[in-house]
Amino acid sequence: MKSQISTDLNPDISRPKVGIVGGLGRMGRWFAKFFQGAGLPVLISDLQTELRPEDLARQCQIIIMSLPMEVFPKEVAKLGPMIPENSFMTDICSLKQSQVSCMLEYARCEVVGTHPLFGPAEDSLKGKRVALCPGRGKRWFTWWEELLRKHGAVTSVVSPEEHDRTMAWTQALNHFILLCLGKAMDDHGIDPKQIMALATPSFEQQMEIVARLYHQDPELYATIQMSNPYTQSVLETFSQHGENLRKIVKERDRAAFIKLFEEVQNLGHAVLLLKNFM
User: Looking at the structure, do residues 137 and 173 belong to the same domain, yes or no?
Assistant: First the structure.
């Protein structure tokens, strides 16, 4: 990252030292590079490093928890009490309700839940979405949001609960659809070369998204599916509408199909209007 934007956004917290717990993971490395590009000193703790998380708690004003969600509660419970009250703790997990609650329970410092809505393949924050879930305190929250925005991020401030409700649609259901599509094609022995030769532009885009799963972590995707408390409700709603549409097609109920299609068109129109104003 080439950006060298000043981080002196507050005279009381200029040039803080950043500690990344789990900093050798893909997103941990990404944020280490980001902070270094912003001119901030960075320390990393991971299973293979000499520095331990408690070293970061003693030496750093900012603690970034870049950990798998399965080990997150245990590590926060151990590290949180060691972080001074005037420091800042945030995470970059894909879910927020239990994560923010956990940080608030075990740490006395300022807390914000952070969800970068992109992967480690991106080369900068420019134009990327980042969700911020306030937990405790305003000083570090303001510093953090301004830093992200100055580097081009598009931030959205939401409660942890609303974040997870939305993620049940944008992540859990989205992944569910992709996995069902890929598995159905695989079980039917579809020839990838043949289907891509005859793919419409929209289907080609879908297949490109399915192809991206090759680079993803199945453990993370399993956690996203199974740890979000709102996933089951969303999947049940989706399945009901899927079964209803299957029935409409089976019975060749043209009027019902057109009615459903027009209802979805109305949603599509609303999305287009929204994108035109973004």
Answer: no
